[in-house]
Amino acid sequence: xxxxxxxxxxxxxxxxxxxxxxxxxxxxxxxxxxxxxxxxxxxxxxxxxxxxxxxxxxxxxxxxxxxxxxxxxxxxxxxxxxxxxxxxxxxxxxxxxxxxxxxxxxxxx
Length: 109
Known about the structure:
Elements: H1 3-24, H2 26-40, H3 44-58, H4 60-86, H5 88-107
Helix pairs in contact: 3-4
């Protein structure tokens, strides 16, 4: 046997021996059963949320997409709030509010 074949055989042996030992490990079996039990106790909305979360967290492109989408939404909210705070419409709205208060005091005591 050449050196490459021996290394390949050792890798396969290590892989399967690790899997075999993990299968025999009572802690990993308990962990698997607990995960299955907890998953079974989730309602459908929680299962969908968990699935979407796993899908997003498992893919680098999805993580970046969600990150930039969240940043874009926050920037949109900040820009809209800023526009409302400094625009003429807001000043007119406060005038309307004051006129409404005056009307309510005068006509509906």
